[in-house]
Amino acid sequence: MDGLADRLTGVLGVTGDIEREFEARLAESSTLAFRVAYGVLRHRQDAEDVAQEAFVKAYRSFHQLRDRDRFRAWLVRMTWRLAIDRQRNDRRRLAREAVAPPPESATEDQLVARERADELWRAIDALPDKLRVVVVLAGIEEQDLGAVSRLLEIPAGTVKSRLFLARQRLKELLCATT
Amino acid sequence: MRDDMNGRELDREIERALAVDPSPEFAARVRLRIASEPAPGLWRSAFALRSQPLWALCFAGGAVTALAIAVGVIISRPAPSARLKGSPYTSSTNVARGFQPGGGLQPSDAPTKPETPTRVEGSPDTRATNVARGFQPSGGFQPSDRARESETLLDARETRALQRLIAGVRDGRVDLSPVLDAKAVDAMDLPPVKDLVIVPLTIEPLVPQSGTEGARP
Q1: What are the chain A neighbours of B22 within 8 Å (beta carbons)?
Q2: Which of A93, B5, B92, B115 could disulfide-link to B88, CB 3.0 to 4.6 Å?
Q3: What is the dihedral of CA A88, A89, A92, A94, to 10 degrees?
Q4: Contact present, B150 and B88 (Cβ < 8 Å)
Q5: CB distance A58 to A74 below 8 Å
């Protein structure tokens, strides 16, 4: 009986350690997960829902993640996939914040900026998925190609070439819309 | 409008578009949601808790079984030394106790023997042999081997009869030569069997009895 109690205490102790570590990961990665989801969905509530779902999935499988340094990359990929699925399936994407009617008190500059943002997002949505994720993550990480490389777990040179191609395509798309 | 937009401006515009923070309650909602989840890997840990004793039980059961088999094999196959020292031929028969190397039955032993069964090892078929071999002309009964006496019962009367028989043979009062010279009838010496005549069986038909059917005569 004592052995069972010791083992139970050990298991709960390990579980407590995992929870504490996950709490730390959550604190440092919550904004990242939200922005990744927002970069796809552009709807705050949807993005929060998807990010939360990604965290729950990550929590369920956290004990299987041997290299905890890969948590952010793991979380980003999971969030991206969930967001893409949500975008494809959820009808609420029609009610994005970007296409929501502007408030009556908005100034002309705000209206112009909103229009430009809508054009930009439409162009980003039109990119292939490989280029799209690079553009979004580069925007989140403030163009730090090394950080994007670590998040996507691909070489930095690949990130650079994909980002170059993505910019070229965006310019073409944005010029085509004007 | 966008013709003059260079890469830097485009990047800044994307960064501005993505510079959106989650609501303040987002992290709290995630924590609340996770709190309602079972602990990560708890089912695995629980399984480990249950399976560990199970494995231990399986291992212990296997070990006990192997030990029991090993003990059974060892017991069923006596060691050569035990066969020599502990066998009733030399030590355990009370039949042989009355004998000394010089021969003869010690009168003080036999009459005082209680009527309780004595114990010798071996099957009943081998008792006589054991009794006979229990007497060692050279060394007699070795007291050190008494501790290894077997537990098989032997009737005291049978013991006394065999002791008297052995004493009689040694004294010349009993002559066993006819018994030793007697030849058992060999099966091959039997006369050939003549042809058997088997009378064929005949079954007579039943004769109907007179009287009313169902009524006793």
Answers
A1: 30-31, 34, 44, 47-48, 51
A2: B92
A3: 40
A4: yes
A5: yes
Query: B23 CB near a chain A CB, below 8 Å?
Result: yes
| Structure ipTM | 0.75
Given a contact cutoff of 8 angstroms between Cβ atoms, the answer to whether A114 and A39 are in contact is: no
**Token pair for A124:** 């980003």
Q: Do A63 and B44 touch (CB under 8 A)?
A: yes
| CB contact set of B135 (below 8 Å; sequence gap of 6+) | B95, B96, B99, B166
CB B91 within 8 A of CB B145: yes
Structure tokens of A110? 């705000």
For chain B, the C-alpha Rg in angstroms (whole number) is 47
Residues of B in contact with A142 (CB under 8 A): 15
What is d(CA A117, CA B14) in angstroms, rounded to the nearest whole number?
8
**pLDDT in tens for each of the 178 residues of chain A?**
455 445 544 444 556 677 788 888 888 899 999 999 999 988 899 999 999 999 999 998 888 887 878 899 999 999 999 999 998 876 555 655 555 555 666 788 888 878 888 888 889 999 999 999 999 999 998 889 999 999 999 999 999 999 999 999 998 888 876 6
Q: Which domains does chain A possess?
A: 1-99 (1.10.1740.10), 106-178 (1.10.10.10)
Backbone phi and psi for residue B99, each to the nearest 5 degrees, phi listed first: -100, 145
- Single-letter code of the amino acid located at A71: F
B4/chain A closest Cα distance in angstroms: 10
A64: chain B residues, CB-CB within 8 Å: 41
Paired strand residues for B118 = B154
d(CA B150, CA B88): 7
Please report, as a single letter, which amino acid is at residue B133: R
Cα separation values, A111 from A36, A104, A107, A177, B212, Å? 25, 10, 6, 17, 128
Rounded Cα distance between A102 and A110, Å, is 9
Number of Cβ atoms within 10 Å of the Cβ of B144: 9
Residue with tokens 């009527």: B115
Q: B80-84: long-range contacts at Cβ-Cβ below 8 A with a sequence spacing of 24 or more? A: B82/B148
Place of tokens 């009737």: B155
Q: Which uninterrupted H or E stretch holds B23? A: none
Give the pair of three-digit tokens for residue B32.
């609340």
**CA of A6: how far to CAs of A1, A2, A11, in Å?**
9, 6, 9
